[in-house]
Amino acid sequence: METKAMDLQKLEKANSIIQVAIELGIKVQGNMGKCFKTDRHVLDGEKPTLFFNLAKNTFHCRECQDVGGTVFDLVCQYRGWERQKAIEWLAHRVEFDEATKKLYHGKGRKKLPLYDNSK
Question: Which GO terms describe its biological process (predicted)?
Answer without folding.
Answer: DNA replication
